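User: Fold this; tokens only.

Assistant: Input:
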Amino acid sequence: MATATKTAARTLDRRGKTISTFVAFDAANELAAMADGEVLEVVTSDFGPLEPEITAWCRAAGHTVLDSTATPGARRFLIEKGSASPKATSLAVVLSSDGLEELLSPLGFALAAALEGIAVHLYVQGPAVRMLQQDFRPRLRGWARPFSRFAAAGLSRAGHIPAQDKLRQLHTLGAHVYVCGPSLAHFKVDPDKLVLDDVKVVEYLSFMAVMASADIHLYT
């Protein structure tokens, strides 16, 4: 990539984080406070997948990667803020599991979509409704369950933040969250004590209408 000539107005250092949505979310917050045409320097670990990921996000979000340079132990991106064109695309996600590992991919895809300007609709049902409880802590399945805290700490260090924090990020990005009313009753989750205050309590028929108009569907 050609060497950039513009000077960065701000710097964001996210070395040690290898999850692209974590880096992109923080970069998006920085860029939101900057003027079009200003440049943000983002420093990450020199982790191979980050370069195409950050480049793809910038392209979708209307920003321009002016430069991407590997340095000893790090990679430096220079991102010029632009303006994204409105998208008509929407994503519908059905989330059914509350397992630590099972939550990673669907919430990651939802975050990636929201960061690219895609409208996200998340339907939480079955055991996954526990994720909306204020004291929820996801756990590994089976024999590995006692090691859940260590696994969660390792994931967090890489940038896989807790599921509820990802929900809050999605909420900040404008995602719509729906929850299955009968599942709340079955798993004894109080609808008046959810971690988000504007969750829509519905069931299958209501979310089918959402899914009918969505362009992309994910089921877990």
